[in-house]
Amino acid sequence: MKTLASILAAAVLAAANSAQAAPLRYEVEPDHTFVTFEVTHFNTSTVRARFDIIKGFVELDRQAKEGRADIAIDASSISSGVPNFDKHLKSGDFFDVAKHPEARFTSTAFKFEGDALKSVEGELTLLGQTHPVTLAGKRFNCYDQPVLKAPVCGGDFEATIKRSQWGMNWGIDMGVPDDVRLLIQIEAVQQQ
């Protein structure tokens, strides 16, 4: 027959194990997080731009190999390095920031191979439309950040999307490609 002490010890151990398995919350670290995109320009050069304001969080349970992400991108923070091009990108021809000031990626599943996060499936909301996107992962890692003195997780993720799927059609009939390569470099800081 089990004693009360052994039952309590088992309950404490079970509670400790469930506490360790709980997802940890990580807030996006803006100095090491970049969302960029690139598209070829009439099959000659590659045109790139990035968004400078990204906010959000990642919840990660590395033991259970599960996670959740919700990332908001300020569309008006787009920067190509060319002011006239930025103005065009913000217009109704492309991101239409007056009507749609935010783009958002919300995950639906994290896919692991061993301890490595290989992809994040989710939904990208852009121009008021939401469609599925899978971000392939590279160099996913967690480490103790020596400057912030906190655990940090992050990596490089990418996908190629067809912008017309979200109704961004300007220039396709002139030869500006529909395919857009998204590149996301993200680091997020564990919250206490």
From TrEMBL:
Pfam families: YceI (PF04264). Residues 25-189 form the Lipid/polyisoprenoid-binding YceI-like domain. SUPFAM superfamilies: YceI-like. Residues 1-21 form the signal peptide. Keywords: Signal. This is Polyisoprenoid-binding protein YceI.
